[in-house]
Design goal:
The protein is α+β, with helices and mostly antiparallel strands. It has seven helices and ten strands.
Length: 291
């Protein structure tokens, strides 16, 4: 359960740190990896029919005007059928925006293009402890949802446990799933070691875990869980041409397993008592599967 909480928290944190754009092909509005008649048709559908936007405005900006609008559909049609001007780079192959001075970006790369961010990532504002504290301050504890059948765990050779079984009627934020409450989030910025340390505490109340013991059939245990632990987000800094310190790259998240504390209280009979007895093994397996 802790891992689900961490991932959602990290997404919100990184969203405040960076605005990255993936590679794209200019004019490829439907992101199929090529530019043809289907692309201006797709763009017109997005602009005027309410069709779903696939998430790459840079690709839709065929004429590189800094906006994705009807002129881009006309520009592409002229190129395809009237000998019009070729779309500016990147065109014909995947690449980054060479005139990246507008508000457009590309969060979903076309088929065959890399999702790796283009260029150097610069923080939009000063990142310091005061900023982090204000960013994560909440008056109401956030609720994170565990998906149905989040993990099937082999506790022992004769015992498996299914977390949040899919056939339960449990709802979370209006959707099937099991709620996890994050009660506290604190952060510490460690510039000396180029990392962000996040500490979280929370709980799960009345979580259903279905246990199949192999010799006693299926048993539904009602489980209360209290958890706490640290995550570490390493990053790389550097200096620009004017010797300003900038954020260059955010590295994969690391979990400080030594800091994880999970207390599990399972109710529902003898089999559930066995589950509590295997708590350490159960928790280690659960964290491994949810990672």
């Amino acid at each position: 359960m802790r891992i689900k909480v961490v991932l959602v928290f990290v997404i919100s944190m990184l969203g405040a740190w960076q605005a990255q754009s993936a590679q794209f092909i200019r004019g490829d509005s439907n992101l199929d990896g090529q530019v043809d008649i289907s692309d201006p048709v797709a763009l017109l559908g997005i602009l005027f029919l309410g069709n779903e936007d696939p998430g790459c405005a840079d690709a839709q900006d065929a004429n590189d005007s800094g906006e994705a609008d009807i002129s881009d559909a006309i520009f592409t049609l002229a190129y395809l059928f009237s000998g019009g001007r070729m779309p500016p780079p990147p065109f014909g192959e995947c690449g980054c925006d060479e005139t990246d001075d507008d508000a457009l970006d590309c969060q979903t790369p076309p088929d065959g293009c890399s999702a790796d961010p283009c260029g150097i990532v610069e923080p939009s504002q000063c990142i310091d402890q005061e900023f982090l504290t204000e960013m994560v301050r909440r008056e109401v504890a956030p609720i994170i949802c565990i998906a149905p059948d989040a993990a099937v765990i082999e506790v022992t050779d004769t015992m498996t446990a299914t977390v949040c079984p899919a056939d339960e009627d449990t709802m979370c934020e209006g959707e099937p799933g099991c709620p996890v409450a994050v009660t506290e989030i604190t952060t510490e910025l460690d510039m000396d070691n180029e990392r962000l340390i996040g500490h979280m505490e929370g709980n799960v109340r009345g979580l259903t875990i279905r246990v199949d013991s192999g010799f006693g059939g299926d048993t539904d245990c009602q489980v209360d869980i209290d958890f706490s632990g640290d995550m570490i987000i390493p990053f790389v800094t550097g200096f620009d041409d004017e010797d300003n310190l900038i954020l260059v790259e955010i590295l994969p998240i690391e979990f400080d397993r030594d800091s994880v504390v999970i207390e599990l209280d399972a109710r529902g009979g003898f089999i559930c008592s066995l589950l509590s007895g295997f708590q350490d093994l159960f928790v280690e397996d659960l964290i491994g599967q949810l990672e």
